[in-house]
């Protein structure tokens, strides 16, 4: 005899596989450009526009990646971007966590007003502030060369509104009884943050880290403004330079594009479950 509990499971499982089946063509539609990019990056120049197209070239021209990374200096751009993304992500996690904890878990008089002030900065698009910021950094001698990285790093260490919002919303979902019990045991606010709140905020921390990595990895405007020397370029800025250099050599161009896109895609695929959980949980409160 079938119990009443079996019916909701059947109702849920039926539409679920239908939705997945319906989404497969959509997923394939988005995957085709990525697969075509990787396939073309492994072809010879005379195979790029052949008809019928060859999806898996034989033999694969792996030297296209070697030429891009070594001969054309794209490997240096990749190392610059990895270093920049690491420093920016660490600063983002540090500043967003401390600010969000103060706004969500510490009771002080003007915290709601401070939160509104932080959120209001999200209304300002980047192109509105980039000219006054450039003027300020130029007067400080922080444009071009190694100092040119500081304008890309410093904002992350002073908190970004969107990341503060994500962390605050997640922290609001953590029961306050846990913090109260720790205070009764003599734990300091820093101890509560490190021992109780942060371990429970791993999905939100991962979401913030992924957002920060993707934003830094794909940013073109900020490096274009502050980085003058080509040896300090990031992958996105280097890829923009490649568009003019390899206007007819599509295999080289798409090899550089693959080096730019695939690492971030792999990180996202490996962490997507916790990433989605961190984003969805921020809307609880």
Automatic annotation (TrEMBL):
GO biological process entries: transmembrane transport
Predominant cellular place of this UniProt entry's protein: membrane
Cellular localization per UniProt: Cell membrane
Origin superkingdom: Bacteria
Domain (ABC transmembrane type-1): residue spans on this chain: 78-271
GO cellular component term of the entry, any: plasma membrane
Annotated InterPro entries: MetI-like, MetI-like_sf
Keyword terms, alphabetized: Cell membrane, Membrane, Transmembrane, Transmembrane helix, Transport
Signal peptide: none
Residue ranges of the TM segments: 21-39, 77-101, 113-137, 149-171, 192-217, 253-271
Pfam families: BPD_transp_1
Membrane topology: Multi-pass membrane protein
Family: Belongs to the binding-protein-dependent transport system permease family.
This protein's name: Sugar ABC transporter permease
Organism: Dactylosporangium siamense
């Amino acid at each position: 005899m079938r119990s009443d509990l079996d019916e909701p499971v059947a109702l849920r499982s039926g539409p679920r596989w239908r939705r997945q089946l319906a989404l497969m063509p959509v997923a394939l539609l988005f995957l085709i450009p990525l697969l075509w990019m990787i396939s073309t990056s492994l072809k010879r120049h005379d195979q790029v526009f052949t008809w019928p197209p060859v999806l898996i070239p034989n033999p694969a021209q792996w030297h296209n990646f070697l030429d891009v990374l070594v001969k054309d200096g794209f490997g240096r751009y990749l190392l610059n971007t990895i270093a920049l993304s690491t420093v920016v992500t660490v600063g983002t996690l540090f500043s967003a966590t401390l600010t969000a904890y103060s706004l969500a878990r510490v009771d002080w008089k003007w915290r709601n007003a401070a939160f509104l002030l932080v959120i209001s900065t999200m209304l300002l698009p980047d192109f509105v502030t980039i000219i006054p910021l450039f003027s300020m950094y130029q007067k400080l001698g922080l444009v071009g060369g190694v100092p040119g990285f500081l304008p890309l790093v410093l904002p992350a260490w002073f908190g970004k509104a969107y990341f503060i919002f994500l962390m605050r919303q997640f922290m609001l979902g953590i029961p306050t009884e846990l913090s109260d019990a720790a205070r009764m045991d003599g734990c300091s606010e820093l101890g509560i943050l490190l021992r109780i709140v942060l371990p429970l905020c791993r999905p939100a921390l991962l979401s913030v880290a992924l957002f920060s990595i993707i934003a830094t990895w794909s940013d073109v405007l900020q490096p274009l403004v502050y980085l003058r020397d080509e040896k300090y370029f990031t992958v996105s800025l280097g890829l923009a330079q490649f568009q003019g250099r390899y206007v007819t050599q599509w295999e080289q161009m798409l090899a550089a594009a693959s080096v730019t896109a695939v690492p971030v895609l792999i990180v996202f695929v490996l962490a997507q479950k916790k990433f989605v959980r961190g984003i969805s949980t921020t809307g609880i409160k």
